[in-house]
Design brief:
Elements: H1 2-20, H2 28-37, H3 46-49, H4 58-74, E1 101-105, E2 109-117, E3 120-123, H5 125-138, H6 141-149, E4 157-158, E5 161-162, H7 163-199, H8 204-229, H9 237-276, H10 281-308, H11 313-330, H12 332-347, E6 355-358, E7 361-368, E8 372-376, E9 382-386, H13 387-390, E10 395-397, E11 404-412, H14 418-434, E12 444-450, E13 455-463, H15 468-489, H16 519-536
Antiparallel strand pairs: 1-2, 2-3, 4-5, 6-7, 6-10, 7-8, 8-9, 11-13, 12-13
Helix pairs in contact: 4-5, 7-8, 8-9, 9-10, 14-15, 14-16, 15-16
Length: 540
């Protein structure tokens, strides 16, 4: 009797506790909590859950409310009510700032959200209109058919999982593996066809990369298939949450791998293209672009992975932007050098292996990096020039010359007879014509003036090769031929000196050199030297 009195006394308290959970649509948190709470097994009151649907008859509203939860459960979307805002006038700052609305899962399910109507929050009209389509996507037509044909034995429970679910999971995995094998072959065939249409060749290295690219594409197709079919197995929300989290992580990793391999394929094709171009600055651009796009893919993939774990990437990017701005202000020189690098690759003032004059630096360009350019001087020393400075100073690119000009003066002794001066000039001209590395249609060899201690013969020639080393070798052969010509003609080169001449000295002959000005001897000497030079330096 005493126990009955206690029960009668406590019954109103239990009823009051049950009534304390009431329909509340005052803010996003209250509306979503009301919807989900009254559809739980231990508090199942679908009529109250249907209050979150605006403007529909009760029966239709109940159906819509149940399907919204089933879609969320089927995709493994666990709603953390503690993160839902309680602000009655909440505005989503991600893209809906002009409306009072809250999207539960902006990345994975953007079509399901609540919005403020008058002073209360309901599931949006767009959500209600699209829920049938979303439901059919998550639970295709064959799900209800399977439920009808599954025998009673198929509902036997093993560790909380029914037998038909285990069989369905096994069939899904087998079909996924078959899809993997088929898609891998198809993907490689299509990629190879596309690559052949673009490059018109079959590069073995590119084919290897294409095979590696086809592998993650087939894995993506398999993961997409499992993602599509797995909700049909109707596992619990907890199982779906972990399975779809794993699937989304796997898909993101596969996409990262696909884009990394795609970058590798594009860079392989681009490197083949740059090898065919004249300049080598494009060759230097290949590793820089490869590093840049690889970093871009990795950063984007990391941000995607963070969103799967509930990290707000918008806030993260905003913080990174502010931090990046502060870092940029603290490292202005680095930023200036990066901009200078971009300008160098856009303007292309020089190419790799070009001989340039940039201020006090003269040498061959070896490498253009993100921060600086490496130039090797003639004495093999290396200059590292910041790209910001290199993009601002005047650059004389001798590598872009059509020919290498060489100009010098040869000094003959003042006592050289006019006939030998003419013969020497004529011989030098013929040597230049016979030289395989000089332009025979553009040169100058003339007696141009009287120096302090020599008669000046100007030699102006153009070498065909733009390489500095070949130019020096060409000069060497030209100089040797000129020295031989002078020796053969008996012409002496002058050097700074002071000559004291005593015209009459007892019993002594004059110190004047003896010159042979015989025309036949002169022509024979010129022909001999030019003939020997032509034999030693045949046309290339």
């Amino acid at each position: 009797m005493k126990k009955i009195l206690i029960l009668v006394f406590l019954l109103p308290l239990f009823a009051k506790a049950q009534d304390s959970i009431r329909v509340d649509l005052s803010n996003p948190h209250a509306a979503i909590y009301t919807h989900l709470y009254f559809l739980q097994s231990d508090s199942y009151q679908p009529k109250k859950a249907a209050k979150t649907i605006f403007g529909l008859p009760e029966k239709e509203a109940i159906e819509k409310a149940i399907k919204i939860k089933q879609v969320l459960d089927g995709k493994g979307l666990y709603v953390d009510v503690n993160k839902i805002p309680t602000n009655q006038n909440y505005k989503d700052t991600i893209g809906y700032s002009s409306y009072f609305r809250y999207v539960l899962f902006p990345e994975r399910m953007p079509d399901i959200y609540v919005e403020k109507i008058d002073d209360k929050w309901y599931y949006s009209a767009e959500t209600v209109a699209k829920i049938e389509t979303l439901y059919k996507d998550v639970f295709p037509w064959y799900v209800q058919k399977l439920q009808k044909i599954i025998p009673v034995s198929g509902h036997k429970n093993f560790f909380g999982i029914e037998l038909w679910q285990l069989i369905g999971l096994l069939i899904t995995l087998i079909l996924g593996y078959i899809i993997f094998l088929i898609v891998k072959r198809i993907a490689f065939f299509i990629l190879r066809k596309v690559q052949h249409q673009i490059t018109r060749n079959t590069n073995l290295e590119v084919n290897k990369v294409l095979k590696k690219l086809a592998h993650p594409i087939s894995l993506l197709a398999t993961a997409t298939f499992v993602d599509k079919v797995f909700p049909s197995l109707q596992f619990s929300l907890e199982v779906n949450t972990w399975v779809f989290l794993a699937l989304n992580i796997a898909e993101t990793v596969f996409w990262i791998y696909v884009f990394l391999k795609l970058v590798q394929v594009v860079m392989k094709i681009y490197s083949e293209y740059t090898e065919k171009t004249h300049g080598r600055l494009d060759d230097q651009l290949v590793p820089i672009l490869h590093s840049f796009f690889t970093g871009l893919v990795l950063v984007a993939g990391l941000l995607k992975l963070l969103t799967l774990f509930g990290v707000n990437t918008t806030t993260l990017l905003a913080g990174a932007t502010i931090g990046g701005l502060a870092f940029a202000l603290a490292s202005q020189d680095t930023v200036k050098n990066l901009i200078g690098t971009i300008m160098i690759f856009l303007d292309k003032p020089f190419h790799i292996e070009d001989w340039i004059e940039a201020g006090e630096v003269v040498g061959t360009v070896e490498k253009v990096g993100f921060r600086s350019t490496r130039v090797r001087a003639a004495d093999t020393s290396v200059y590292q020039i910041p790209n910001s400075r290199l993009s601002e100073i005047v650059i004389n690119n001798k590598g872009l010359r059509l020919f290498r000009r060489y100009n010098t003066n040869l000094g003959l002794r003042y006592d050289t007879p006019p006939e030998l001066i003419e013969a020497f000039v004529k011989g030098v001209r013929e040597i230049i014509i016979a030289h395989p590395e000089t332009r025979s249609d553009s040169y100058n060899v003339e007696f141009t003036g009287f120096g302090d201690s020599a008669l000046l013969i100007m030699v102006n020639v153009y070498f065909k090769s733009l390489a500095w080393g070949i130019e020096q070798s060409s000069k060497h052969r030209l100089h040797i031929a000129i020295v031989k010509l002078a020796a053969e003609l008996g012409v002496d080169f002058a050097f700074p000196s002071t000559t004291v001449t005593i015209e009459q000295f007892p019993d002594k002959t004059g110190l004047q050199p003896k010159y042979n000005t015989d025309s036949e001897k002169i022509n024979a000497s010129i022909n001999k030297v030019v003939s020997e030079f032509s034999k030693e330096n045949p046309e290339l």
